[in-house]
Specification:
Helix content is 26%, strand content 18%. It has a single domain, classed as Jelly Rolls (Sandwich). By secondary structure, the chain is of the alpha+beta class. Strands 1-2-10-7-12-5-4-3 form an eight-stranded mixed beta sheet. It is built from ten helices and twelve strands. Bound molecules: 2-oxoglutaric acid and fe (ii) ion. Fe (ii) ion binds next to loops.
C-alpha cells in the first residue's frame, strides 16, 4: 500500500461501547443517536421480512452434474443481490466454532487487556474503531479489532492478542481456510460471468486477507442506533461469519432492508467494489448495515479479500468491446486504495471510480 499517510487510514479513538453498555444505561448517549426526531426510524428504507438472501451450495458448483444449474443461481445471486449464503464451503465446523469462541473470549476480557492490542497512531489495525475523523461524527454501536492476516509478512503480531492463548493459532488457521474458499468461489463467480480462465481467482492466492472482528453489545435503544452505518465493501469479496443466532446484518435489496438469518455453518459472501469494477458493473457490491439488539450481544468475523497488489483494478477485457463500453476506470492497486482512503465520507466511492 502507498506509504503516504491518507486521511481515513487512521481513526480517532472513541469510547468502548462494551464499557458503555456494562454501565446499564437506559438511554444511549447523543453521539450514537441516528434518528434525531426520536421516532425510531433509522435510514430511509423499510425492512422486508418476506425476502431471503439466496443460498449457494459449493458442492453443487464442484459436481459436474449440478454445476450449470448452480452457476446460473450464482449468477442471479451476484447480479440481483450481490450477496449469498454459502454452504458446503469446506471451512471445517471446528475452525468456524473455534474462531467464534476465540473472538467472543477476546471481547470478554477486561478493557485494559484488550487495549494491549489498541490501534496505534496512523493505522486502522488493532482494537478500536474505523473511519472516525471528527469529534462530532455519529458513532456506530460497535467495538472491533482489525488485523491483516495474509500474506504472512503483513501481520503485525504485536497487535495480535496473546490472550485468549489460542487466539493467534486459531486466526492463522481460519485465514488459511478462508483463502481456499475465496479462490474457489471467485473462480465460480468468474465462470458465472462467462469467463473460463482462472487468472482472476488465482490473483487471490497471493491476495490480501484483512479480518475485522466485530462486537455489538446489547443496546437500551436499539432502534435509534446502528451497529455499522450503511456501506458497501471495498474488497474483492467479503466472507462473513455470523456468530449469533438472531439477525443483525441487513442488505439493501430493491430499496428494502433484508435480514440475513444466521445459519449455523454457513458463510455470508458479498461482492465487493473490486469485483463490481472487474465485472464492469454486472455484479454489484451491495449496501449493507448492522443493527443491534436490546438484550443480546452479537459477534461477527468479517474477512475482506483482495487480489494481490500487482493486479490492476478495471473491467476485464472480455466484458468490454463489441458495443460494450467500460463503465469503470482502470486503476493500479495503489491508486485504488489511495482513492479509497482519501474519499469524502459523504460521497459515493464507487461513483468516483466511474469513467
Ligand atoms: O457485522 C456485520 O454483520 C456487518 C459487518 C460489516 O459489514 C463490515 O465489517 O464491513
Ligand atoms: Fe461491510
Amino acid at each position: 500500500m502507498d506509504s503516504t499517510q491518507s486521511n481515513l487510514e487512521s481513526s480517532i479513538s472513541v469510547p468502548s461501547v462494551q464499557e458503555l453498555a456494562l454501565q446499564g444505561p437506559d438511554k444511549v448517549p447523543e453521539r450514537y443517536i441516528r434518528d434525531e426526531d426520536g421516532d425510531g426510524i433509522i435510514g430511509t428504507y423499510p425492512s422486508d421480512p418476506n425476502l431471503h438472501v439466496p443460498f449457494i451450495d459449493m458442492d453443487k458448483l464442484v459436481n459436474a452434474d449440478t454445476q450449470q444449474e448452480e452457476l446460473q443461481k450464482l449468477h442471479l445471486a451476484c447480479k440481483d443481490w450481490g450477496v449469498f449464503q454459502l454452504v458446503n464451503h469446506g471451512v471445517s465446523t471446528t475452525t468456524l466454532k473455534n474462531m467464534g469462541n476465540q473472538v467472543q473470549r477476546f471481547f470478554e476480557l477486561p478493557l485494559q487487556e484488550k487495549k494491549r492490542c489498541a490501534q496505534r497512531a496512523g493505522s486502522l489495525e488493532g482494537y478500536g474503531q474505523a473511519f472516525v475523523t471528527s469529534e462530532d461524527q455519529k458513532l456506530d454501536w460497535n467495538d472491533m479489532i482489525f488485523l491483516k492476516c495474509l500474506p504472512i509478512q503483513n501481520r503485525k503480531l504485536d497487535l495480535w492478542p496473546q490472550n485468549p492463548p489460542a487466539f493467534r493459532e486459531t486466526l492463522e488457521r481460519y485465514s488459511e481456510e478462508i483463502r481456499k474458499v475465496t479462490i474457489s468461489i471467485v473462480k465460480f463467480i468468474t465462470m458465472s460471468l462467462g469467463i473460463q480462465d482462472t487468472q482472476i481467482s488465482e490473483g487471490f492466492r497471493e491476495g490480501l486477507y484483512d479480518i475485522r472482528m466485530n462486537c455489538y453489545p446489547p443496546c437500551p435503544e436499539p432502534e435509534r442506533v446502528l451497529g455499522i452505518v450503511p456501506h458497501a465493501d471495498n474488497s474483492g469479496i467479503t466472507l462473513l461469519l455470523d456468530c449469533a443466532n438472531f439477525p443483525g446484518l441487513q442488505f439493501l435489496k430493491d430499496e428494502k432492508w433484508v435480514n440475513v438469518e444466521p445459519i449455523e455453518g454457513a458463510i455470508v459472501a458479498n461482492i465487493g467494489q473490486i469485483i463490481e469494477v472487474i465485472s464492469n458493473g454486472i455484479y454489484r457490491a451491495p449496501e449493507h448495515r448492522a443493527i443491534v439488539n436490546k438484550l443480546e450481544e452479537r459477534f461477527s468475523i468479517v474477512t475482506f479479500c483482495y487480489p494481490n497488489p500487482h493486479t490492476n483494478i478495471g473491467p476485464i477485457d472480455k466484458l468490454i468491446g463489441e458495443g460494450k463500453i467500460a463503465v469503470y476506470k482502470n486503476l493500479t492497486h495503489a491508486e485504488y486504495f489511495n482513492k479509497f482512503f482519501n474519499r469524502n465520507l459523504d460521497e459515493s466511492f464507487i461513483d468516483s471510480l466511474r469513467v
